[in-house]
Amino acid sequence: RYEQPMLIGGGSSINGQIANRRTPDDYDEWGRAGAAGWSWDSVLPYFIKAETDLDYAGPLHGKSGPIPVHRIPRERWPAFSIAAEAAMEAQGYPDIKDQNGAFGDGHFAMTLSNNNGQHRVSTAMAYLDAATRRRPNLTIMTDTNVLSLAMEGRQVVGVDIAKRNGQERLAAREVVVSSGAMHSSALLMRSGIGPGGHLRSLGIEVHVDLRGVGANLQEHPGISLSGYIKPAARLDNSTRRHIHVGMRYSSHVADCGPSDMFLMVAAKSAWHPLGPRIGTIISWINKAHSRGEVRLVSRDPRQEPTADFNYLSDYRDLQRMGGAVHLIAKL
Question: Could you give the CA distance from residue 311 to residue 217 in angstroms, rounded to a whole number?
Answer without folding.
Answer: 10
